Structures are given as C-alpha cells and as structure tokens.
Amino acid sequence: MLLSYHVDRFNEDYIYIDVSDQQATIAMMSDIHWLLCDMVEKANDLFGAQVLALMICIFIHNIVTPYFFFLNLMYPKDSSIMSTLQLVSQFFWIITHVLELLVIVLPCAATSSEANNTSKIVCKLLNRNFTQGTRQQLETFALQLTHHRAEYSAYGMFKLDLPVITSIAGAVTTYLVILIQFQGTDLDVTVVQT
Fold first, then answer.
1. DSSP character string of the chain
2. pLDDT of 36 strictly over 70
3. What is the pLDDT of residues 157-191, one digit of tens each?
4. In angstroms, how far apart are the furthest CA atoms of the chain?
5. Is CB count within 10 Å lower at the N or C end of the chain?
C-alpha cells in the first residue's frame, strides 16, 4: 500500500496516515525519491553542456536584442512603417528570449522545489507516534533527503533555480546601461568631430 497523507487545506499540521505496512511503504518512497534524484543527476550529466550553451545564448540575446531595440527607438533612421515594424519585431524578440529563459528555468525550479519539499513532509511525520521500526525508517529517509537533493544545473556552473532569473536580469541590465552609455559617448564624439 502507498503511504497516503492528507494535508488539510486550512490546517497544514494535520496529517492522516492510512497504511498497513508503514515500513515497507516508507522504504518504497525512499527508493522512489532516490530514483528521482538519480534521474535529475543523469539529466544534468547528459544535457549539462547543452543547457549551459543555451543559457549563454539566451543571455547574449537578452543583451543584444534590447540594445538594438533601444537604438532603433532613440535614433530612428527614418519614420516609415518599416521602422515601426522593425521596432515591433524587436519587441517580440525580446519577449521570446525572456520566455525562453522562463521555459528552461521554471520547470527545473518547480521540480527541485517539489522534490525537496519531501523533507518537510518527512519531518512532520517524525513528530507523530510510530513504532520504533517506522521511526527508524523515517530517520533514514530524512538522512537520505539531506544528502541526495534533486537540483538541476548548467554543467555544474550554476543551479537552474529562480535566483538565476534575477541574476541574469541584473547582469543584462548592467550590460545594457554600459552599452547605452558608450553609445551616447560615440554620438557625442561624432557630433564634436563634424
């Protein structure tokens, strides 16, 4: 039988356990969690380099596309419909590159979060009255959870978690400010020379 727990929507401290063989069920859940962590580790090994290359490309696109959008917005070559269409096209490319980042990072972060949420459930179960064997099985499972976590990474360089989105946004903003400042000085030099 599976360990079934019910967390009341209004009272998270209430957990109902309905099992006949608790130790076997906990051992099975421990094995399932181990397999999940193994699959995440294998995915990191197989696709880590590709994910790193993709994240670098997305990072560069998130710098270059807004930069040229800014240039076309601030210094239009002409006021034709083509210039407006080019701005709209670049705006949609900006949205596309941001969505690419979110499509990669959000599922990885959600999977890691849910897998690591298991430790909270096991800790709540440790506070209940169980037989000595069941308690020992839960303690073993809790120890496994602390040492074997499900975390996606880009070739081991950084974790694919929600903070990477803010880090990339901060770096993109910094580079855009620098590029725009250099663009402003280039225009000033050109005006002074003529």
1. ----EEE-SS-TT-EEE--S-HHHHHHHHHHHHHHHHHHHHHHHHHHHHHHHHHHHHHHHHHHHHHHHHHHHHHS-S--SHHHHHHHHHHHHHHHHHHHHHHHHHHHHHHHHHHHHTHHHHHHHHHTS---HHHHHHHHHHHHHHHHS----BSTTSSB-SHHHHHHHHHHHHHHHHHHHHHHHHHHHHHHHH-
2. yes
3. 999 999 999 999 999 999 999 999 988 766 555 54
4. 88
5. C
> Which positions ≥6 away from 126 have C-beta within 8 Å?
135, 138, 139, 142
Whether residue 90 contacts residue 98, with contact meaning beta carbons closer than 8 Å, is answered with: no
For residues 63 and 163, give the distance between their C-alpha atoms in angstroms, rounded to a whole number: 18
Task: Name the residue with tokens 């690419």.
Answer: 100
Q: CA-CA distances (angstroms) from residue 46 to 23, 51, 115, 153, 159?
A: 34, 10, 20, 11, 15
What backbone phi and psi angles, to 5 degrees, belong to 28? Answer: -65, -45
Nearest to 119 by CA among 27, 30, 44, 14: 30
Residue whose pair of structure tokens reads 């197989």 in the numeric block: 46
Question: What tokens appear for 32 in the block?
Answer: 């399932």
> What's the predicted TM-score (pTM) here?
0.79
